[in-house]
Amino acid sequence: MPTKPFVSIIIPAYNVQNYIAQTLESCLKQRFGDIEIIVVDDCGSDGSMAIAQSYARSDTRVKIVRNKENMKLFQTRGAGVRAASGQYVMFVDADDVLEPHAVGRCVEAMKSVESKQAKRVDSKNTIGFSSVYSKGVSPSGVPDAQAPNGVLDSRESIVCSRSGGNGGFASSPDSNLPETNCDETIMGGGAIETSASGVDMIVFNHKLWYSDHTREVRCYKHRYYPNIDMFYYYLINISGLCWNIWGKLIRRELYLRAFALIDTGSKINMAEDALAYFACTSLARSVLTLDEPLLLYRQREDSISRLHTPQQRAQSLQDHEIVSQTIASLSAELAPHASAMQRLYMRKYLSNALLSTQSARLTLENVPADEQSRQRARYHKRFIRAHRVRKALSHIVWLWARLKGAEHRI
């Protein structure tokens, strides 16, 4: 009986015959071999699936799943996860490319964290707060050749630091977040509760891939967040949100639970990343972020994100409204059981979603460019004011937790 793969790579495919071969090649050339690749046919009209089928015939790791009708990105990704058998899933768009060491780097970092956790777990299933995984260290403790500056220091504290890059579609390019030593400011060096089942989500950076050059987008540094409130604190204090669902390795069970919460049956292409990412981060218990850019995200003029026609702009607004309403509904459902830090995070996330929805509305209504600029500036000014308030409140929550000696939950 064949063993189940550790990682399932999900590729939604719709009219991508010019790109899908390169995407599949990058997945098949992963140095970490315990994978399966699931291509989900979303009923396109070109030769994409003929190309995918040729790869499936030559490599048993490639599997084809077919939608009965065009379901669009959100539902297509869900179909891929349901068909997957891996413990973790990774989403790759059919025009993007993975670095050869992408999956292996994620798994290596995760195994190293879990190994260090196991060594420090006591009878109460807690670990010392200073036990963190430092950048570029292999499971053996030797600096990784792919990250030459990596060092291992068991005394190094987790730092919620400034984010580089602009990864979300409702974010500001700059952040005023100071270098904040979480070991001192947040938990006071105490013991913290950890996820007994290991890391729920691994998040990594990416490169934007243009026709003539690439540009790195660095939303994350190499940090391990064994308590999800620490990750919320970081996300609250950066100016934007890198809320794409690709560029992540996610526990399959977690994604299925998240999908069940947000699946209204809607077929959406735009902002669907934001919806899935919100649900996953709301349910995750621990997150590991990597600073390496492990995926090339192709920028092309014929992408579905390019709104060339009034019909496309109308559909974009409708998708954004569905996403905003679903996030608001889920936030209300989770709020009674959420920590104070999670509630602040949910407010920021909804604010980002609403700002993006308003931008889509201006585009649809053909507002003159100068008036669009004025309105966007006005909305963004309100958003920044609210962002500063949330940052201040997040610091107060951490300080309150330290003074009260709250070690497990905020």
Brief digest:
This protein is of the alpha/beta class and 410 residues long.
The general outline is globular
Low-confidence stretches: 122-196, 406-410
Instruction: Count every helix, treating DSSP H or I runs of 4 or more residues as helices.
Output: 11
Question: Got a strand count?
Answer: 14
The termini sit apart by: 46 Å
Strand content: 15-25%
Q: Measured on Cα atoms, how large is the radius of gyration?
A: 21 Å
Q: Portion of residues in helices?
A: 40-55%
Instruction: Report the major sheet.
Output: 10 strands, mixed
Instruction: Note the run of SSEs as H and E.
Output: EHEHEHEEHEEEHEEEEHEHHEHHH
How many independent structural domains?
2
What does this structure look like?
With 410 residues, the protein is of the alpha/beta class. 42% of the residues lie in helices and 16% in strands. It has two domains: 7-98, Alpha-Beta Complex (Spore Coat Polysaccharide Biosynthesis Protein SpsA, Chain A), CATH 3.90.550; 102-404, no CATH class. Helix 6 (228-237) packs across helix 10 and helix 10 (340-364) packs antiparallel against helix 11. Helix 2 links the parallel strand 2 and strand 3. The strands form three sheets. Strands 1, 2, 3, 4, 5, 10, 11, 12, 13 and 14 form a ten-stranded mixed β-sheet that branches. A two-stranded antiparallel ribbon has the order 6-9. The protein contains eleven helices and 14 strands. It starts with 6 loop residues before the first strand and ends in a 6-residue tail after the last helix.
